[in-house]
Amino acid sequence: MNAHEIDYHIHGEEMQFVEIELDPYETVVAEAGSFMMMEDGIELKTIFGDGSDQDGGGIWGKVFSAGKRLLTGESLFMTAFTHGGTGKRKVSFAAPYPGKIIPLDLQELEGKIICQKDAFLCAAKGVSVGIEFSRKMGRGFFGGEGFIMQKLEGDGLAFLHAGGTVIEKELLLGESLRIDTGCLVAFTRDVEYDIQVISGIRNMVFGGEGMFYAHLQGPGKVWVQSLPFSRLADRIVSASQKYGGGSKDEGSVLGGLGKLIGGQ
Question: In which band, very low, low, confident or very high, does the pLDDT at 68 lie, cut at 50, 70 and 90?
Answer without folding.
Answer: low
